[in-house]
Amino acid sequence: MAKDSSFDIVSDYDIAKVTNAVEQSQREITSRYDFKGTKANIEFTDGNKTGVTIIGDNQFHLDSIIDILRKKLAGAGVSQKILDVSKDPVEGNMQIKWELEFRKGLNQENAKKVTKLIRDHYPKVKPQIQGEEIRVSSPKRDELQGVMQVLRDSDFDFPLEFTNYR
Hints:
Elements: E1 5-10, H1 15-31, E2 41-44, E3 51-56, H2 59-75, E4 83-84, E5 90-92, E6 95-102, H3 108-121, E7 126-130, E8 133-138, H4 141-153, E9 161-163
Antiparallel strand pairs: 1-8, 1-9, 2-3, 3-6, 4-6, 5-6, 7-8
Helix pairs in contact: 1-2
C-alpha cells in the first residue's frame, strides 16, 4: 500500500512580518501631511502583539490608517483577513479609538466549514480536525494540490495557510 501524503491547514500569521508592517505604518503616519498636528497613531494593543489600537481625530483618520496598515500587510505577504474589524470604534476625549484583534487559530465552526468544502470537492481525501488545525491526507499528491487550490479560490473570512506538506 502506498504511503499517504499530507499537509496541515492553519490560520496563523508571521508575527515578524506583522510587526514590520505596523512599524512601517507608524513611520508613514508621522510623515504624512494630512496627519500633522493630529492624534493619529497606531500601536500594538499589548506586549504579546495580539492586536493593534488605532487612534484618530475622526472616522476619516481611522479609515486612512487602516488603509495604510492593509497596504503594508499586503506588501509583506500577510493576509488582511487577520484583522478582526467586528468591534466598533470608541469615541471620547475628542478622539476615536479602534481596537483591532488579530485572528489566529481555527475554531470548530470554521474548521467544519473547511472540511465540508474539502469533502464536497474531493470525497477520497481525508480531512481531520486536530485542535486549531486540520490535517489533510491522501495517497495522491495531485488531489492534495487540488484541495489547496480549491481553498485558495474560496472566500473565507479568516486566513488559511498550508504547512507540513509531506
